[in-house]
Amino acid sequence: MRSEIVKLFAEQPVGTEVTVKGWVRTFRNDQFISVSDGSTIRTLQVVINKENHNESTLKRIQTGTCIAATGRLEKSLGKGQDIELICSQLEILGDCDPNEFPIQMKRHSLEFLREKAHLRFRTNTFGAVFRVRHHLAFAIHKFFNDRGFFYLHSPIITGSDAEGAGEMFRVTNLDLDEIAKTGKVDYSQDFFGKTTNLTVSGQLEAELAALALGKVYTFGPTFRAENSNTSRHLAEFWMIEPEVAFNDIYDNMDLGEACLKFCLKYAMDNCKDDLEFLQEREINEDKQKPVDERQSMPLLERLNMVVNNDFVRITYTEAIDILLQSNHYKKKKFKYPVEWGIDMQSEHERYLVEKHFQKPVIITGYPAAIKAFYMRMNETDASGRKTVAAMDILVPGIGEIIGGSQREERYDVLLEKCKQFNIPEDHIWWYLETRKFGTCPHAGFGMGFERLIMFVTGMTNIRDVIPFPRTPQNAEF
Ligand code: 4AD
Ligand code: MG
Q1: Same domain, yes or no: 13 and 135
Q2: Do 166 and 232 share a structural domain?
Q3: What residue numbers bound the domain in which 35 lies?
Q4: Residues 95 and 144 grouped into a single domain
């Protein structure tokens, strides 16, 4: 029977015989093997008596070697660990040639490890990140389940463009080589008899369900063929999309804020060792950076601060005014223009959360022209400005982590919006029908799961919080 290292540290069954299986991290003085089995960031010290093993076995104990070790668990006298395994039987399960294994104990850059994504799980950093990722996924389900939401599986292949941004991956089984030769495409001959794509969002389907089940959420992969090679965008990412009947934009803000806080708290309660490790890691990384790029607060302090304080809530119009009145603007330090109507760039959002407020900010009431067709129209204001009941939640270091809105529930207004956005009625008739048959106010949002993980772990590149990132020109593994 194999014991997991996380259990041994928790239960400390000193004096009993146990077997651990895992991968060698280091081997010191022909005597101390530090073993990781992935169940925790902590490694177990396996003490061997070199008299018991021949030279050739000892040579096979290398960083990365997979071993099974059996022996008595004892209190450890050495510093840095409270228990160790006094090994009586050692078996090599899998050799690891040190001349070929790329993951050695020295520090590797994250860029280097991205090229070795099949092996980077073996490092402390990625072990920690992916354990935290798991706990956050669990936290999401717990949050919504505890509140009576139903988990809805929205389709991955769809015929609609939920965001109307046209950034979709086509799904087809047509013979592209043949098409290239003949130059002719007949979509009616395609698998679904029409054009289809990978979903950019499960929202529209979630709305259909919310208008019967009341409270639902989706949690699945979404795909965007946007050619933005940034540290915050993936072509394949996971999104959580709650949708609630009878909620307005204010309820929606409360739900988003509560959800984020719950996830942070859950991670702090359940991933203590990993987060402490990631905090240290960030402090060490920061030492290489110019002072003004360093974090002003350690990771856990930052997370606590977010959990324990109200988010700032402002309108888009107020946000633009803050930007226009900033010294940053007056000194012409923004690269992109600032005026009412702009789609705020990441530099603007970061100024607001990181410089001006230094905490999470919820912005509402965006210009209708820059937001999706389904967002509920507000009353036109005195100066004739048209806005929608949209909300974005921005957090320090990341920018937008949540985007959502109250939905347009009025049939006529929605129909008019579809026309303005050139969405053919016969593409979206099913969505429109819900506004004819017992429509009601409702609202929801989408939270980028990887952005949440970045925020919780302090990792600064989104490629480092998903096992196998898909980005432009890159779909290895
Ligand atoms: O703001 P977005 O585009 O909103 C929607 O898709 C709505 N249908 C959501 C809803 O109301 N149900 O995306 C929502 C969130 C963003 O705030 C961001 O965190 C994340 O999804 N996101 C991405 N994450 C990684 N890579 C990308 N390319 C992302 N695009 C959006
Ligand atoms: Mg958005």
Answers
A1: no
A2: yes
A3: 5-101
A4: no
CATH number for the domain harbouring residue 306: 3.30.930.10
* Minimal-distance CA residue to ligand 1 atom 22: 448
- Which residue's CA is minimally distant from atom 25 of ligand 1? 233
DSSP state, 471?
B
Q: What is the pLDDT of residues 158-194, one digit of tens each?
A: 998 878 777 999 999 999 999 999 999 999 999 999 9
Task: State which ligand 1 atom lies nearest to the alpha carbon of 404.
Answer: 11
CA distances (Å), 236 to each of 15, 139, 168, 444, 450, in order? 49, 21, 11, 21, 10
Q: Ligand 1, from 158, 168, 239: best to mutate by most atoms within 8 Å of Cβ?
A: 239
**H-run or E-run covering 457:** helix 449-457
Q: Report CA(186)–ligand 1 centroid distance (Å).
A: 32
pLDDT tens per residue, range 7-49: 999 999 999 999 999 999 999 999 999 999 999 999 999 999 9
State how far the Cα of 378 lies from the Cα of 57, in Å rounded to an integer.
Answer: 74
CATH number at residue 66: 2.40.50.140
Residues 25 and 142 in one domain: no
Sign of CA dihedral 381, 386, 388, 393: negative
Q: Is the pTM of this model over 0.90?
A: yes
Tokens of 236: 């394949």
**Domain check: are 78 and 226 in the same one?**
no
